[in-house]
Amino acid sequence: MKMWSGRFRRPLDPAFEKWQRSFDFDCRLLECELEASAAHARALRQAGVLSAEELESVLHGLEQIGEHAADSAEFIDDSEAEDVHHFVEKQLVALIGDAGFKLHSGRSRNEQIAADLRLYVRAGCDEISEAISNCISVFLDRAEQAGQAPMPAYTHMQRAEPVLVAHWLLAYIEMFFRDRDRLADCRRRGNLCPLGSAAVAGSTLPLNRELMAGELGFDSQTANSIDATSDRDFVLEFVNALSLLALHLSRWAEEMLLFSSQEYSFLQLPEAYSTGSSAMPQKMNGDLLELTRAKAGRVIGDATALMITTKGLPLAYNKDLQETQEPLFHATETAVLLLPLVTGWMSAVEFNFERMQKAAATGHMNAFAAATYLTRKGVPFRIAHEQVGKAVRLAFDNQCELQDLALEQLRDIDNHFNQDFYDFVKLENVLAIHDVSGGTAPVQVREALSTARKKLGSVQEESHAHA
Hints:
- With 467 residues, this protein is mainly alpha-helical.
- It has three domains: 5-105, Fumarase C, Chain B, domain 1, CATH 1.10.275; 110-352, Fumarase C, Chain A, domain 2 (Up-down Bundle), CATH 1.20.200.10; 367-425, Fumarase/aspartase (C-terminal domain) (Ribonucleotide Reductase Protein R1, domain 1).
- Helix content is 62%, strand content 4%.
- It has 19 helices and six strands.
- The strands form three sheets. The chain has a two-stranded antiparallel ribbon.
- Strand 1 and strand 2 (158-164) form a beta hairpin.
- The longest helix has 38 residues, at 109-146.
- The radius of gyration is 30 Å and the shape is elongated.
């Protein structure tokens, strides 16, 4: 029996009926649907719609549906169920009889899907936040293990200045903390209960909305039934947050692919996360990294699809909103599967610190430090910049580094150069002079690592409080 067939005299076109079904994908919401239905049943009991015996029967039936679904994938292979709501009603009636039909009293599928999706997004926020925390933890481990190992930092894809490897890894850690913060904010804003909103105008039964919200772990109730049944902002916000996470992972993957190439040789691809070539025996390909880049495009596409689907919808519920589910599921499942793989990759990768250090010590990357040297001698920075530029050009002509120029050559450019210049532009001193909060000086990086470790502990404690 359809949930709406009474008004119709003719059956649906079979092709249309199959085409418009959503159970093939919204079956993912079964656990959420059962949880929300149990809360609604308790509210119906309080409103006098269900007897104590009927409530017990409904709750037991819902529990049995969950157990059957967990035990057998074939249980949810239902070609007749229109959606997850229809499936649960069918199964409940089959288990407990006509009392199962009473469960739909005072509610609508419009509010049911809104509640299910909020529960799904909340669970996604929690699971993905935990996965991000695990990823951050491994990045921190690798940063701490790197100690004071240096590497080149790049701007415009050209070597710019030396930094600590730990400082470079901390840049990704900052991105991931922001991703985690966005999910926490999304969770807070979306953690409202729409049950009691019915189809559009609110339930016609005196349901205790506060009771339902509390049982489901929501912070409060939605304030307007029209908005509650048509709102998908929490889905858009969540998937947009995931698109930024995917973007950050894609940037990371791109850099790791570059740095693993023979031209850089800053790191060795982990064999457990790489594949070979069917034609070239010597090849090792960074497939995890390449797929990470590609997956980002699809998640960003999910976010775009959601925006386009909802941009022209009038209030309140429209069937178009069914199309917001698959992008949500895809983006969520992509993040859930990808993050542990990235974490494993980062645990296994081998850095070539010797190669990194050599690259950090060549290519005139101490030029900014040389200009700083002159400014500390009283030379205005703009002039210092010009004079060091001349020195770099001379070093290029002589095919040497700045510190390899003779003092007489330097003094011909600017008489503020003295013997102490050569110590000033040594690699360890070039790193140390960036001694500001957020800089790459070893003392600052040690403090940043400690701060990040404490922040990670704090957010993990907060997550466990939600669990």
